[in-house]
UniProtKB/TrEMBL annotation:
Keywords assigned by UniProt, alphabetized: Cytoplasm, NAD, Oxidoreductase
Protein known as: Formate dehydrogenase
Keyword Secreted belongs to the record: no
Enzyme class, UniProt record, top EC level: oxidoreductase
NCBIfam families named among the record's database cross-references: PRK07574.1
Binding site for substrate: 123, 147
Site entry: Important for catalytic activity: 285, 333
GO biological process: formate catabolic process
Length: 386
């Protein structure tokens, strides 16, 4: 019987919800492009409830304990004396989410003597040292597509809120003010602007599709070019590299995984090639940008605005400079953890666990590392240092 160690974010400060803003969730028939929604044999939760926090337990307890396994759930994940570190040595399976990541460093791999499977309940497994997983023969899987559309919607919201300068206007209303000039002096229309995405995978392409009706000029760069009919239907301009694309864009959105090719990509040098007054949105991973270079670009006016929901480390410390830098629209890491997304990634986590315990193959599109190699989706989108 296995021990499953699951790291989740804390419950709301006023306690686990007793009621919700809406009754249930819309039913989806599948993901864009035909990938099926998660297919566990059953679920033991009501879609639409809070599953991503400690008391929600990703809806897994009944299933795991019913099968004789042990489930340990904690939010205490950092520091050598954390509950996570104490529970890790005999854990067979580790589950965590990018929103509140259990950083699976090479050092922790050494401690985790029984570890066979790491599941990212969501998308983006960069909090796991993939080289170490390859070396140790540990399988890494994530719930591909579970929150891609959730993030794409967040990106569109952030682009509009920065360009139109929505957040400062909302502050003025809350403070009882009414100076129109104050709230329009940095407010523009998105129409006619050049918008580019770094990567056009599931999220990047969904952002492009959602922005097309805004009558903007759409650009992208990616390691693999999209099919010609997709480029034509959205009137996309493809660029060989990020460096080629950003100088022509008014708005840039980053939708690539964090891996050796993308780490630190947006530093002083690349930012200096952007148009004065460009907007940058990063909901992918914070370390794709250089933290202090972003602050400098906002202070100098090179960037007119920066938004996103990804920080390093997470949780971000109270004195993280992005909390106080000018013209930002940051949120805590939340875009991929809407109640809608939680229902999908919880069901997908259960599907992966069922496959693992029953000795059935995990879907290719969920696999990042397997059998000592990058595999499935991981082989397509990630790279390792070694
Ligand atoms: P996909 O795997 O569908 O897409 C990633 C794309 O990035 C692929 O098209 C890949 O190219 C491309 N890519 C990889 N490296 C580069 C590079 N060096 N330059 C340009 N493009 C590159 O993933 P998703 O779209 O679903 O997710 C993307 C990322 O978003 C995740 O890895 C995660 O970090 C982040 N994310 C954030 C969430 C949040 O809550 N904020 C939630 C979900 C995801 P190709 O495959 O063609 O080689």
């Amino acid at each position: 019987m296995a021990k499953v160690l699951c790291v989740l974010y804390d419950d709301p400060v006023d306690g686990y919800p007793k009621e919700y803003a809406r009754d249930g969730l819309p039913e989806l028939s599948g993901y864009p492009g035909g990938q099926t929604l998660p297919t566990p044999s059953a679920i033991d939760f009501t879609p639409g409830v809070l599953l991503g926090s400690v008391s929600g337990e990703l809806g897994l307890r009944e299933y795991l304990e019913g099968a004789g396994h042990t489930l340990v759930v904690t939010s205490d994940k950092d520091g050598a004396d954390s509950t996570f570190d104490r529970e890790l040595p005999d854990a067979d399976v580790v589950i965590s989410q990018p929103f509140w990541p259990a950083y699976m460093t090479a050092e922790r791999f050494e401690k985790a003597r029984n570890l066979k499977l790491i599941i990212t309940a969501g998308i983006g497994s960069d909090h796991t040292d993939l080289d170490a997983a390859v070396r140790k023969g540990v399988t890494v899987a994530e719930v591909t597509y579970s929150n891609s559309i959730s993030v794409a919607e967040h990106v569109v919201m952030m682009i509009l809120s920065l360009v139109r300068d929505y957040l400062p206007a909302w502050e003025v209303v809350k403070e009882g003010g009414w100076n129109i000039a104050d709230v329009v002096k940095r407010s523009y229309d998105l129409e006619g602007m050049h918008v580019g995405t770094v990567a056009a995978g599931r999220i990047g392409l969904a952002v492009l599709k959602r922005l097309a009706p805004f009558d903007v000029h759409l650009h992208y760069t990616d390691r693999h070019r999209l099919p010609r009919e997709v480029e034509e239907s959205l009137n996309l301009t493809w660029h060989e590299s990020t460096a080629d694309m950003v100088p022509v864009c008014d708005v840039v959105t980053i939708n690539a995984p964090l891996h050796p090719e993308t780490e630190g990509l947006f530093g002083d040098e690349l930012l200096s090639t952007m148009k004065r007054g460009a907007y940058l949105i990063d909901t992918a991973r914070a370390r794709i940008t250089d933290r202090d270079a972003i602050v400098r670009a906002l202070q100098s006016g090179r960037l007119a605005g920066y938004a996103g929901d990804v920080w390093f480390p997470q949780p971000a410390p109270p004195d993280h400079p992005w909390r106080t830098m000018p013209h930002h629209g940051m949120t805590p890491h939340m875009s991929g953890s809407s109640l809608s997304a939680q229902a999908r990634y919880s069901a997908g986590t259960r599907e992966i666990l069922e496959c693992f315990f029953e000795g059935r193959p995990i879907r290719e599109e969920y696999l990042i590392v397997e059998g000592g190699h990058l595999a499935g989706a991981g082989a397509h989108s990630y790279s390792t240092k070694e």
